[in-house]
Please model this.
Amino acid sequence: MKRRNKVSAEFSMSSLTDIIFLLLIFFMLTSSMIIPNALNLKLPGKSNDNPPPTKTRPTIVNIERNGTYKLNGSNISKSKLNSAVAQLKKENKKSFIITPDDKAPSEAVVAVMDMAFRYQLEAIITDPK
Model:
């Protein structure tokens, strides 16, 4: 009698496909649970539902190169700007304009956008100057 010493070179794919399907299900379930923490930006574009422009002067927040803020042309601190944005909400204004300098720190711009988000106002950002 002759013995067989050859090892079988077959590979079972069934266990590998089971693992792949389990990983796929895991990533599909976990990705649906992730809540994005981002700002809701409205990009410019043509829209037919724009109301007619108001006759009041818009509120403009300038952000300088050194990170200081100006509200309608006058210097203002970050805490007073927060109070001014809260006052806009009380006056039922829906939006204000953010005009950053081209070298303004990103943190200052995001801070003003966060104020608008907290008080549920629309912040319109213009091109940096």
About this structure: The longest strand covers residues 95-100. The domain at 60-125 is CATH 3.30.420 (Nucleotidyltransferase; domain 5).
